[in-house]
Amino acid sequence: MRVLVLVAPGQGAQTPGFLTPWLDLPGAEDRLRAWSDALDLDLVHYGTEADADEIRDTAIAQPLLVAAALLSARQLFPATEDVAREVGATAGHSVGELAASALSGVLTDDEALKLVRARGLAMAEAAAVTETGMAALLGGDPETTVAHLEKLGLTPANVNGAGQIVAAGTLEQLAALESDKPEGVRRVVMLKVAGAFHTEHMLPAVAKLEAAAASLDAAAPAVPYVSNRDGLAVATGAEVVTRLVGQVANPVRWDLCMETFQDLGATALIELCPGGTLTGIAKRALPGVKPLALKTPDNLDAARTLIAEHSSTAE
Hints:
Elements: E1 4-8, H1 28-39, H2 43-48, H3 52-56, H4 58-76, H5 80-86, E2 89-92, H6 96-103, H7 109-127, E3 132-139, H8 142-151, E4 155-161, E5 164-170, H9 171-179, E6 185-190, H10 203-213, E7 225-226, E8 233-234, H11 237-246, H12 254-263, E9 268-271, H13 277-285, E10 290-293, H14 300-310
Parallel strand pairs: 1-2, 1-9, 9-10
Antiparallel strand pairs: 3-5, 3-6, 4-5, 7-8
């Protein structure tokens, strides 16, 4: 049996101009402009012309990333029925969960984008209260690293597997981490994010996101939706939305998501635009699983080949 997993990247994956080649595809710019009008946010500008500082802004980066994931996904899977027919599981890293919620059919694309717009604004406001940030730690033993982070007052906000943990906290705490790395950690890399996401610093955003989600009529996932909270596949749309709301202030357990991919028998993984981060982790943590990152439209043909070889309908 072959199982294809479809995943969406999180904040920090964006780079200046990364959407430029995608707008050459038929209908892509029209779709992005329609989403821009609905969100009152110029996604075309931010995806093609804005500089790194502009797209680092949480209120911009989050809807931009979800729009990019959906824009690229719809080149391969125009509707939920296509995802359900070809894909064995969906998941997203952090804000990528909003894209996964649409791809699994829990929310519509428009609903997911409106919710992520509210998420980005609420988290940006929470991040403005205290100067905070995040840093990736490469290498080291997870238990040793987590204990060291807690000693410094930092939170292991992303446990990504493959020897990578992301710490979050105040800038002072992160500066202390750079000069006092956990045993075995090779590098500490500051991330292009504007806050300590998935920590107690984001608690003020939870209530605002809960209010924004209150009117949503979420459908049951048409394809297994694997949650960042604990790596479990969620059965109901209401539970997916509840988890989306609470997840902004709780750690991302991508390591557990990958364990579920293995349990489901994953044989291939496609990371949506702007792909690269999650496929890099998968190469190290999921031996035997063939990963592919959608960086530009040039990768679409390879993705279609992978789908033909690894989808649930493959011979």
